[in-house]
Prior knowledge:
alpha+beta; 4 strands; about 5% strand; globular; binds glutathione
Amino acid sequence: MELYLNATSPYARVVRVVLLEKGLADAVTLQWCDPWADDDSLLAVNPVGRIPALVTDDGATLSESLLIAHYLDTLGDGEPVLPMARIEQVLHLAGLGQGLMDAAFTTVIARKHQGAETDDSVLAQRRWRAIQRILDRLEQEVAGHPIPVAVTLGEITVAVALDYLAFRLPEVTGSKKRPRLVTWHARITEGASFHQTRFA
Length: 200
Ligand SMILES: N[C@@H](CCC(=O)N[C@@H](CS)C(=O)NCC(=O)O)C(=O)O
């Protein structure tokens, strides 16, 4: 398999963490690319022009991080990242994580292409409020979750989104308002799959 990615995409990082958790790192060749430069090799496999894109051994291209994670969960020897016994809880958490990632990523891209003044726009303000609401909800919810022996797609998605906030929008996570979430995040990201995929 081939994975098209870069080192700063939170969506690609979710897939990389899943690959490591499933014991599939050696089954994949990493194809580093720049999706914002209309990279020819990426466009040849994924007309959407976005990363992550996974080309399977049968030559099919999969896009969308959560769909790729779903596929990878059918392979490999690691514990399931989508365990059926807890599927509602896992998908609920993954949705919050993906929503947080989307709001943070769109904010970063808007600033990059339109300048910091875009923060005052109606849409940027909506995203900002969504980020605060999601973080508040996570502070309530994850504190009550036991730290699992094997992380699921729910914890992976939320933890990567929190890392992305710290990486790109540190003013958001500087808050001392959510101490339980900070502790939970530190525990979840202790493992090798998070260390080996740090944003760079
Ligand atoms: N919903 C997608 C989002 C993927 C995405 O937005 N990737 C960004 C990089 S982090 C990208 O490739 N952007 C290039 C573009 O939009 O042209 C997923 O979960 O994989």
